[in-house]
Amino acid sequence: MIDQSTALLLITVAVASAVEAVEALTIILASGITRGWRSTFEGALLAIACLGVIVAAVGTALIQYVPLYILRTLVGTLLLIFGLQWLTKAILRETGFKALHDECDIYDKEIATLSKEKGILRGKRDSLAFAVSFKGVLLEGMEVIMIVISFGLASGGHDQLGTAALGALVGVGIISVVGAVVARPLARVPENYMKLGVGNLLTVFGVFWMGEGVGVHWPLGDLFILVLLAIIFVATLGLVTYFKRVHESKIEVRA
Amino acid sequence: MPIEKTLGALWKGIKSFFSFWKDFLVGDSPVLALGVLIILGVAYLSRGSAILAPASTIILVLVLMTFTVWQKTKTRSHSQS
């Protein structure tokens, strides 16, 4: 049986990883289709291996040498910054102030760029496909790594680091399987809703752990996470509703 | 020459390392990063109070969230018009 906070940790990391995996998949598909799959897969696998080493090395070192209250303060602060960044972007997209992330458009642009390039062929390896795939997966994966390490450490050690890594694998695995089946960028994934959800969760855990780290005593203990979740969710809903109206009224004035 | 080259490469590496983390943490929202640090400070200073510490932390997060979204909508409205 897994407890409430472990389940919440698993879901948060899985959804956050899935969002990043959607973006990485677009790059992998574009590279694989235009330049060939072998080098693309090699680049992606090497990036995944690098990310795994970072989690194991950094995570283990931090657990062993840094006291928990310092970890929680640092991790909470980082998560709060990330969470609010995700939330702000997702709210701006939801209200119309920012264009929605269009995976098909990104895919078409990537295909056009990669088709023009010749690349340096070394034996059977396409260095351009390898580099594009490696860089894409590594950069998209860095945010996931930050979340995995943060959640793993702040929840209390090695076991939770494993749980967070498992959550990331589940999220990436689901997107990879779906991506392999449809062989197209996943344009129908409700990416913005996922970002709103993850932004909420990151913000909530960020506030909670940052507070615990500096010595704030939350009423109800760990259960207060649910209260925070309700508060941030209602605030997000309120901001979306209000700024949607603001955006619509601006469009009407222009028309 | 090789030492100058090595130092140059080292300096370039250090600069790109910090620029990566700056982009990662601050991005295009320096106010947000600064706001979070202020919340951290307020939470630390008020940690002794059972009511003030949780309440002020939550209220400040909500204020920062609203302000950041409002600020971004203003900039975007100006750039669109």
> Which sequence of strands runs across the widest sheet of chain A?
1-2
Which two chains share the most extensive interface?
A: A-B, 37 and 31 residues
Tally of strands of chain B: 0
By helix and strand content of chain A, what is the structural category?
Answer: mainly alpha
Overall form of chain B: elongated
- Into which percent range does the helicity of residues of chain B fall? over 70%
Please report which band the strand proportion of chain A falls in: under 5%, 5-15%, 15-25%, 25-35%, 35-45% or over 45%: under 5%
Identify low-pLDDT runs of chain B. Answer: none
CA-atom Rg of chain B in angstroms: 20 Å
Kindly state the percentage of residues in helix of chain A.
over 70%
User: What's the total number of strands of chain A?
Assistant: 2
Q: Biggest sheet of chain A, in brief?
A: 2 strands, antiparallel
Oligomer: heterodimer
Radius of gyration of chain A: 20 Å
Which whole number gives the mean pLDDT of chain A? 82
- Give the overall pLDDT of chain B as a whole number: 85
Biggest sheet details of chain B: none
Query: Strand-residue fraction of chain B?
Result: under 5%
